Amino acid sequence: MKKILFLFSIIGTVSFADDIRISSQLEKDLSEKQTVELYVLLKNHNKTNTYKSSNFLEKRQNHIRFLRENSTYSRQQIEQTLKNFTENYKFYWINNSLWARMESSKAREFLKSEFIEKAYSDEKQKLKLPNPEPETKQIQATEWGIDKVNAPDVWALGITGQGILIAGQ
To answer: Does 150 fall in a domain?
Structure first.
C-alpha cells in the first residue's frame, strides 16, 4: 500500500511540475487561441560566472562571453526541435531566451522539451503608472525646488539662515 501511495505522489509531483513551467496566461491562450506567441526562458547549462579580477572591463567582457556561450549551447540543443514546430522564432543571448509564434497544438508539444525553464505568453502588458501629484493652483514665484523641500514652512517659523557661514566665505 505504501508503494502505491508513493507512486501516486511521484506522479502527482511530476504532473504538477509541468504546470509550473507554463504561465497561467499562456495556458489560457493555448486553450483559447489557434496561434500563440511564446516567450520561453531556456535552462542555463553553465554555472554562474565567478570571474575574479579587479579590472572592471575584464569582468564585463568575461560575463558577456559567458552569456553568449551559454546561449549558444542552449540554442544548439533546442533549435532543431524548434524548427520542426515553427519558422517564426528569435533567440536572445542576453537572458538565454527565445520568442516564437506557432500553433497551439504544436506549442503544447514543444513546451514538453527538457531544455525549457519557463514559458510565458508574449502579449502586451499594461503598466500601472503612479497617480500624478495634483498641481498647485497658486502661482509659484520661487523655483520649484523651494516648495519641494518645504522651505516656505521653515521661513514661516522665522528661520532664514541669516548669519550662517558656509564654506568659509
So the answer is: no
Q: Which three cell numbers stand for residue 86?
A: 515553427
| Summary mean pLDDT of the chain | 81
C-alpha cell at 73: 549551447
The total of structural domains in the chain comes to 1
Neighbours of 57 (CB within 10 A): 8
What mean pLDDT comes out for the span 75-92? 91
| Residue 102 within any structural domain of the chain | yes
Q: Which residues contact 105 (CB under 8 A, 6 or more apart)?
A: none
For 17-121, strand residue ranges (E) read 35-42, 88-92, 97-103, 116-121
C-alpha 32/C-alpha 102 separation (Å) is 14
Q: Could you tell me the three cell numbers for 50? A: 565567478
Separation between Cα atoms, residue 166 and residue 161, nearest integer Å: 10
pTM of the model: 0.59
By the 8 A CB rule, do 116 and 85 touch?
Answer: no
Domain membership of residue 104 (yes or no) is yes
* Domain annotation covers residue 41: yes
pLDDT digits (tens, 9 = 90+) for 106-148: 999 999 888 899 999 988 778 888 888 777 666 656 677 787 8
Structural domain boundaries enclosing 113: 18-121
| Cα gap 126→133, rounded to integer Å | 21
